[in-house]
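Researcher: Next entry in the queue.
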Amino acid sequence: QIVLVTGAGGSIGSELCRQIVKIKPKALILCELNEFSLYKIFEELNTINQKLKIIPLIFNVQDENKVNEVLKIFKVETVYHAAAYKHVPLVESNICEGVLNNVFGTYSVVKACIQQHVSNFVLISSDKAVRPTNIMGATKRLSEICMQALYHQDLSKKINMSIVRFGNVLESSGSVIPKFKQQIKQGGPITLTHPEVTRYFMTITEAAELVIQAGAMSKNGDVFVLDMGKSVKIKDLIEHIIYLSGLSVKDEKYPEGDIEIKIIGLRPGEKLYEELLLGENPQPTEHPKIQKTQDLFTPFDKLKKDLDTLKSMSTNHQVVAVKKMLEKMVSSYVSEYEIVDYTHMEQEGLMNHEKSPTNKQFGKITGINK
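Model: Structure for this entry, 370 residues:
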């Protein structure tokens, strides 16, 4: 088949491309907005399989006309949509761009896939879409709702669509391991948002392989959930990394230790733990590490008006209204934090540069939200 991957230069997108190349498709189209990321993955893939037709394209998935044009010209049959902003604190502080990219980027790609009679579409989602407490999670959940609504609007169209939802991947650009190693190299401290915070982890290779397996099983706009194993307590993970580095933890009991673990507090929108299922009763599939679930969604005729309003608000940077609209459209979204969008805070005179999220929190990112 002719396969297209959006966000092809990102952590998940690039690994998907590596796995797809091994399966030897007819052609692989790389869609990426970041020029350098596109160049890197294109060069790498060409060394893996020089005989395969690989086409690097720079464009924004929010441009529906361009997406339509690409799908039509290259006769694309399968699309993996991995393009998204995924970093929780950054999206929380750039709300409108997060909505435009995650929600309306997905919306335009799904619409184009239906219009161009693409055979298969797979949306890469996140555990943060489940009962979200942050903008990133809410936009990913709304992107899921958009896909489901468009799919069920006209079931006569012969397209298989599915959502694959999973947690953190270890080798991603925001992974905790490199961050912790760097902090150890600098002599510490290692920063942790909360002593009880937990996360699910999976290797990026396994995640990409399972995404492809799940996509092959899709029939009815299914939501697939990858088995991430047991959740990991981040504090325990840090202690293991310190010990494996030949060092010891410095705390009240062991003041002579080498590396201190410093608690910096949960950041806006951050959960203590993540979930993978919205509904109850997940169903097994033929693959032991993939479960299937059905989540409620909004019918397209009810969704469209709110989507138009949300897009107008986001384009005009009406941050407060955008957040309220997200709360309306994603019923499971509950935010307990004030707005920390940079542009909004600067406009309202709320930005205290001594205490801004950049200086106090982003400079100490642990990476557990990526």
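Model: The radius of gyration is 21 Å.
Researcher: Noted, moving on.
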